[in-house]
Design brief:
The chain has 6 helices and 4 strands, in the order αβαβαββααα. By secondary structure, it is of the alpha+beta class. It has one domain. The protein has a 4-stranded mixed β-sheet, sandwiched between helices. α4 crosses α6. It is globular, with a radius of gyration of 15 Å. The relative contact order is 0.17.
């Protein structure tokens, strides 16, 4: 049990560091939301939609460490194949998915969830724990974002 807790602690540390790095990168290099996207984000409950930046590419701009990727894969979250991911106020969208309104709403909901926590590292910590306990598809934060 102690070994499992230690392993989860390591994954949490890796996840928080990676997510913060990606958020910083996207917020520096990504584009601002268009007016229609600002309104959509606000309609999803986002308090500060003007802070959101979007990066459209074939893959997440900074790859996760193998240990973190393996942890996510084992729980059904295939980082390399996701069409979108949210990192605080930074959103990655895969090329060809930038007009997918359902996906964009899903990612805006994750921004809303992050704002509710008040601290990005707290959101990431809970997200990773939910992956561990429920798997990707059944994680409550994912279920909420799909609603």
């Amino acid at each position: 049990m102690e070994a499992e807790a230690g392993a989860l602690g390591t994954v949490l540390s890796l996840a928080i560091g990676w997510a913060q790095s990606v958020e910083h990168w996207i917020r520096r290099e990504g584009r601002r939301l268009r007016l229609d996207e600002l309104h959509l984000a606000a309609s999803m409950g986002v308090k500060r939609p003007q802070e959101i930046r979007v990066w459209v590419a074939d893959e997440v701009p900074i790859a996760p460490e193998d240990r973190l990727r393996d942890f996510a894969d084992e729980r059904g979250m295939r980082i390399d194949t996701l069409d979108g991911m949210t990192f605080g106020y930074g959103i990655f969208l895969r090329h060809g998915k930038e007009a997918d309104e359902a996906l964009i709403k899903h990612e805006f909901r994750h921004v809303f969830q992050t704002e509710l926590f008040g601290a990005f590292d707290e959101f990431v910590s809970l997200y990773v724990k939910q992956l561990e306990w429920h798997g990707y598809y059944n994680a409550p934060l994912e279920v909420d974002a799909r609603a």
